[in-house]
Amino acid sequence: MKNIVLYGAPGAGKGTQASLLAEKFNLVHLSTGEMLRAEVAQGSPLGLRVKAIMERGDLVGDEVVLSLIDKALTANLTGEPLDEWDTHRRQRAIDEGRPVAERIVPSIIFDGFPRTVQQAQMLEFVFSRRRMKLDAVISIDVNRDELIRRIHERAAISNRADDNEATIRHRLEEYEEKTRPVLDYYKVSGLLISIDGGGEISETNTRLSTLMEHILAD
Ligand code: AMP
To answer: Candidates 32, 37, 150: which one to mutate for ligand 1, based on the most atoms within 8 Å of Cβ?
Structure first.
């Protein structure tokens, strides 16, 4: 079982590439953006809290995102459909360090997370509690002009509330200020691998697939 973070600026193609890799290598794909959009679409209490934040292009609070990741890990690592009570029971077992029955351990690809250094540190804590570890962080590098061009292109066809002119600029500012330091964090830990993501989707996918084969076989 491997745990891989796919890192990149808004528009770098994380979501597209993570979906392709998940299908090809049978990975669990955890996208915090998708989880948050699902909460907003359901109109859940959490969704109501984060809707305006996402529409502005701000980052949602670290605790909120971590709680979604923790819940998704519990659901995916136990491999069973979870009702509320089951989730609670299993989480308690994890918290108390007791074994959780029938663990299925798939490899996981994280998309859009961690987005702050604090989230990266919190992920380490969550992993250590579950006796898991991060195996690789793959950064998809794309220059700023190309990022802006891609987000505009996506804005023309998507119905994402945060794909508009003012928000796009703000999301890139949030990225520079809060997310870019995550790269240095992982560079220091020796987990970072960078690839060129400036070309076609298929080119980037070929590079990523070669890399994934090595990581998964290791
Ligand atoms: P994405 O789909 O990854 O581009 O995320 C869309 C929006 O969801 C972001 O602009 C943030 O408002 C929010 N979001 C997604 N992931 C995170 C995260 N890890 N931390 C904070 N906010 C997030």
So the answer is: 32
